[in-house]
Amino acid sequence: MGAATPRKPGFSLYWEKDAVMAVDQRALPHAFELLRLDSVDTLIAAIQNLAVRGAPAIGLAGAFGVALSARAHHAAGAVDDTAVQADAARLAAARPTAVNLAWGVRRALGRLPGGPQAVLDEAMQMVAEDAAVNAAAARRAAELVGSLLPDRPLRLLTHCNTGRLATAAGGTALGAILKLAHHSRVAQVMVDETRPLLQGARLTAWELGEAGVPYRICVDSAAAAAMSQGLVDCVLVGADRIAANGDTANKIGTYGLALAAARHGIPFIVVAPESTWDHDLPDGSGVAIEERDPAEVTTYAGTAVAPAEASVFNPAFDVTPAELITAVVTEDRVVRPRPGHHEKPLRHRIAELVKE
Ligand code: MRU
């Protein structure tokens, strides 16, 4: 894994001369660098250290990983199937929560009988499809938000990074925000900083700045206060895994946002590709939540900020129950787990339940 000549490619990851090229998301916003990932091991490391991150992007990385493996284990016109299957299992397990990773690996593996080039072609096809799928989901979500809130330029709030960096291109929730901005429907975006790794402050702010969309970084713990002060018209987030009933796993802090949005009657919209649904999972209780290194919390920019002996709770994701979600928007459809819930704040619904 090494830094390559910086330039702005059309896709956040792509294939070039025997290797995967990917934007190094750890370096932003200070530097725009490309990584050259030429082995399964370097690719797994890049997924685990979040150089390549975001559910759709790691799904595509997983598919490219299978292509790298198939090329490495190819001799005399035959692929060593067992070796590629073993690499595929390691790739799929690199991070546990986003269903897209195992999905991408499985889909690429399905082309193994056709040989290494067939696997690589499939991975490249998936990159092109992801860009198209995101554009469709973002358009649909922007239309939905526009119809729910037709009157004025909107104050939107988003969490983590769901933009082009987290996908092949275009982005999901951030793609919808950019689409709304394109139609002059955005007054300002509140960007949750997204502790502890600051995907919002570092990456979403960078993408919005590039696009010229006004934004304000919001301390995660101030998001509920922003809603109570009437500074937020709608919340848009992405997803790492959506259970069959609509329960949605996403970056830690999303559940709290959904609770606050329901309390204040604010629409809470999830934007994600169809491939993020895990139809085998009945509800969100079965989602494997990644717990990350305590050092992400006990240090800040390389400096220790907590007692050396402090123990830490550092889940990377949480699960938002479907009943708190106004709509899940994909490239194909708008699913309303709880139609119109946002029109009635949670406390009113609780009062109704108590009366029943
Ligand atoms: O740990 P990360 O940065 O990979 O987490 C990413 C998120 O939670 C995103 O919101 C999600 O993957 C959707 S990206 C379109």
UniProtKB/TrEMBL annotation:
It is found in: Cytoplasm. The record marks C160 as: Transition state stabilizer. It catalyses: 5-(methylsulfanyl)-alpha-D-ribose 1-phosphate = 5-(methylsulfanyl)-D-ribulose 1-phosphate; AMP + diphosphate = 5-phospho-alpha-D-ribose 1-diphosphate + adenine. The chain holds residues 1 to 356 of 518 of the full protein. The active site is at D240 (proton donor). Its EC number is 5.3.1.23, 2.4.2.7. Its main location: cytoplasm. This is Multifunctional fusion protein. The lineage of its organism: Bacteria, Bacillati, Actinomycetota, Actinomycetes, Kitasatosporales. Homodimer. It comes from the Bacteria. Catalyzes the interconversion of methylthioribose-1-phosphate (MTR-1-P) into methylthioribulose-1-phosphate (MTRu-1-P). Catalyzes a salvage reaction resulting in the formation of AMP, that is energically less costly than de novo synthesis. Keywords: Amino-acid biosynthesis, Cytoplasm, Glycosyltransferase, Isomerase, Methionine biosynthesis, Purine salvage, Transferase. Substrate binds at R53, G54, A55, R95, Q199, N250, K251. GO terms for molecular function: S-methyl-5-thioribose-1-phosphate isomerase activity. Belongs to the purine/pyrimidine phosphoribosyltransferase family. Belongs to the EIF-2B alpha/beta/delta subunits family. MtnA subfamily. Pathway: Purine metabolism; AMP biosynthesis via salvage pathway; AMP from adenine: step 1/1; Amino-acid biosynthesis; L-methionine biosynthesis via salvage pathway; L-methionine from S-methyl-5-thio-alpha-D-ribose 1-phosphate: step 1/6.
